[in-house]
Design brief:
It contains 2 helices and no strands. The protein is mostly helical.
Length: 59
């Protein structure tokens, strides 16, 4: 199903972004603006994932 495929893609992007954020936060010269932007992007992915899961539950 197309929604399930989209969920897998979003989950993978969310995990990858989480790893990047963790690694970036450990750097001595962390760019806080970039880190914040990545965290916002991760939150948007999470919101989209949750929305799609709710859509699947209602069908």
């Amino acid at each position: 199903m197309a929604i399930e495929q989209r969920l897998r893609e979003l989950d993978a992007r969310h995990r990858d972004l989480d790893m990047i954020i963790r690694a970036e936060a450990q750097r001595p010269s962390v760019d806080m603006m970039q880190l914040s932007a990545m965290k916002r992007q991760k939150l948007k992915l999470k919101e989209e994932i949750e929305y799609l899961r709710q859509e699947m539950d209602h069908h």
